[in-house]
Write a structure and sequence with these properties.
mainly alpha; 23 helices; elongated
C-alpha cells in the first residue's frame, strides 16, 4: 500500500474516480457489478487517515489535508452518504472509516478549531447528514450510517439542529418537517437491526445537546408526544417499548426540560397511558413505567384532570401498589419510592383543589 502515497498527486486524485463510480451507481438500470467496482478506490482512500496506525504507510498531515480537501471539492461525502446502501459490505465499512476520519481531521494551521469537513457539511452541505439519516431506510446502510451520525452529533450541536429542523425556516420549526420525524417509523417499523440502531441515534439526538432539545420539545410538544405515546410507548415491540419508556423518564427528569415535564404531567391522558404500563405483563415494562408514574404522583401542583384520575382510582391503586413488583426486595430506592407514592395517594384530597 505504501506505493500509493509516494506520489504527492495520487492522494487527492483518489477522490475523483470514486466520485465517478458512485455517480454511475445511480444510472438506470445499474449493472450489478458496479457496486463492487467502487470498492477499490474507496479502499485506497481509507488507509490515508489510518496511516498513524500503519507504520508502512508514510503520510504527513499536509498530505491527509490534501485528500480531505479533495473529498470536499468532489462532494464525495454526499455521494457516499447517498450511495452507501448500494455498496458491498467491505466498502460500507470503508465508507464509514472515511467519514469518521474526514469529519475529525483538523488541518495544520487551520483557521478554525473545528474539522474542515465538518464545517463544510454544517455550512454548505447539510444534505450529507440528511442522506445519512435516510440510511435507515435500508438495513444494509443502517449501522454504518448510524455510527457516523452519532460521531457527528458528539462533535457539534449544529448536526442535531440539521436533523431536527432539516433546514426549515423559522415559520416551520413547529411543524412535521425534518428528517427527525422519520425516526419514529424507522424505530417501530424497521427490521430489528434497523430499529435498534435508529433508536440509539434517536436517543443521542434527544440527550446530547440538551438546551437545544429543550427548545425543540417546547416548540413541538403536542406533535412530539403524540407520536411518542402512540408509536413508541405503545409499540408492539418489547425492546422499543421498554427503551422508549426509559428514555421518556430521562427526558422528563432532566432539569433542562422542566417546562416540558410540567406540561406533560399536567395532561390526564398521559397519566392514563402511564397507568396502563403498570399493568403490563412484562416486569421491566412495569418497572420503567413506574418511574414515569412517580413523576405524576410526586408533582405538588397536580392539574385538576390528574388529581381526578388519581382520586377516582385511589382505592384500586392502594390495593395494587403494595404488591407491585414485590420481588424487588433488594432495590431499596424502588421500595422507598413506592412507599412514598402510597403515602401521597393516601393523603390526596377527595376532590381536586
Amino acid at each position: 500500500m505504501a506505493f500509493l502515497f509516494r506520489n504527492r498527486s495520487s492522494k487527492a486524485d483518489l477522490a475523483k474516480p470514486t466520485k465517478e463510480l458512485l455517480t454511475r451507481l445511480w444510472q438506470s438500470p445499474p449493472p450489478p457489478q458496479k457496486g463492487r467496482k467502487v470498492r477499490k478506490p474507496v479502499k485506497l482512500i481509507t488507509p490515508v487517515p489510518f496511516s498513524p496506525c500503519l507504520p508502512e504507510i508514510e503520510t504527513s498531515p499536509e498530505q491527509v489535508s490534501q485528500l480531505v480537501n479533495s473529498i470536499i471539492q468532489e462532494d464525495l461525502l454526499y455521494l457516499l452518504a447517498r450511495s452507501i446502501h448500494l455498496l458491498p459490505f467491505e466498502s460500507r465499512k470503508d465508507s464509514q472509516s472515511i467519514f469518521s476520519y474526514a469529519l475529525r481531521f483538523k488541518p495544520p494551521n487551520g483557521s478554525t478549531s473545528d474539522p474542515a469537513a465538518l464545517v463544510h457539511v454544517i455550512n454548505h452541505r447539510p444534505e450529507v447528514i440528511i442522506e445519512l439519516c435516510h440510511g435507515y431506510a435500508h438495513k444494509e446502510s443502517a449501522m454504518p450510517s448510524g455510527v457516523v451520525i452519532r460521531e457527528a452529533l458528539k462533535a457539534h450541536e449544529a448536526i442535531a439542529e440539521i436533523i431536527l429542523y432539516d433546514q426549515c425556516d423559522d415559520e416551520h420549526r413547529s411543524s412535521e418537517e425534518g428528517v427527525f420525524w422519520d425516526f419514529f417509523p424507522w424505530i417501530d417499523g424497521g427490521a430489528f437491526e434497523v430499529s435498534t440502531d435508529a433508536f440509539t441515534t434517536f436517543r443521542e439526538i434527544l440527550t446530547r445537546h440538551r438546551p437545544l432539545i429543550s427548545h425543540f420539545l417546547e416548540a413541538n410538544f403536542s406533535l412530539f408526544f403524540k407520536k411518542y405515546n402512540t408509536t413508541l410507548i405503545q409499540s408492539n415491540s418489547y425492546v422499543t417499548k421498554r427503551q422508549s419508556i426509559k428514555l421518556l423518564g430521562e427526558i422528563l427528569l432532566d432539569r433542562n426540560n422542566y417546562a416540558v415535564m410540567t406540561r406533560y404531567v399536567d395532561d390526564g391522558d398521559n397519566l392514563k397511558v402511564c397507568m396502563t404500563l403498570l399493568k403490563d405483563d412484562r416486569k421491566m415494562v412495569q418497572y420503567e413505567g413506574f418511574h414515569v408514574f412517580k413523576v405524576f404522583v410526586a408533582n405538588p401542583n397536580k392539574s385538576a384532570s390528574v388529581q381526578r384520575i388519581l382520586v377516582n382510582n385511589r382505592e384500586r391503586l392502594l390495593r395494587f401498589l403494595p404488591g407491585f413488583l414485590e420481588d424487588r426486595t433488594e432495590d431499596e430506592q424502588f421500595l422507598d419510592e413506592k412507599s412514598f407514592l402510597i403515602r401521597q395517594i393516601e393523603s390526596m384530597a377527595s376532590s381536586p383543589s
